[in-house]
Amino acid sequence: MDPIVEAVALLLGFLGWVMVGVAIPNRYWKTSTVDGSVITTSTLYENLWMSCASDSTGVHNCREFPSLLALSGYLQASRALMIASVVLGSFALVTTLIGMQCCKAAEDKPVLKGKLAGIGGVFFILQGFCTMISVSWYAFNITQEFFNPLYPGTKYELGEGLYIGWCSGILAICAGVCLVFSCKTDTEEKPAYAYQPSRGTIYSAGATSRRDAPSTYDKNAYV
């Protein structure tokens, strides 16, 4: 594999992994504004863990969701997928670092290092898919409630945490694709001996034929 491709893929994967860590605690996964007077105007926003509200004076209060079992199914699934994304990204970074050519670990086994780089790419792809599924599923429920005229509750819009998650998933998938489709897991080794059936003689692969070798004797060497 080209070392430049390895470095670029590792950088993209690392950025995607960091952005997952930024998206999970971000409070603005969905936002809504309740208009009123200057005093009563407030902004409501939620994420995977809590619901918050802030008024026009800058005072904000947050309340964590009381029970895990009382949450809706998509919210529980989004939590699990985001946590799985962090774990898969950690595995991807470790295996990719070991599989890089600049790493001294197992440097005498290029085939193994190529396979490790490919496995790291698979982990990055899985990380990206977990993030994309979690964020997209959450966004789908927001839009479904927003465009439902019979929905009685507060209607929310997409928050910045979702966009961070989408960017993270795209970066992780790009890194994984670069590693999987660019890694070389086999090496071309030249045989130590080559058999010449027409001459009936076995020659060394690096040796030259006696017929083709230039003569070191001239006519004056013969009596």
From TrEMBL:
GO terms for cellular component: bicellular tight junction; plasma membrane. GO terms for molecular function: structural molecule activity. It is found in: Cell junction, Tight junction; Cell membrane. The keyword Endoplasmic reticulum does not apply. It comes from the Eukaryota. Keywords: Cell junction, Cell membrane, Membrane, Tight junction, Transmembrane, Transmembrane helix. The chain crosses the membrane at residues 7-24, 80-100, 121-140, 160-181. It is a multi-pass membrane protein. PROSITE patterns: CLAUDIN (PS01346). Its main location: other. Claudins function as major constituents of the tight junction complexes that regulate the permeability of epithelia. Belongs to the claudin family. This is Claudin. It comes from Silurus meridionalis. The lineage of its organism: Eukaryota, Metazoa, Chordata, Craniata, Vertebrata.
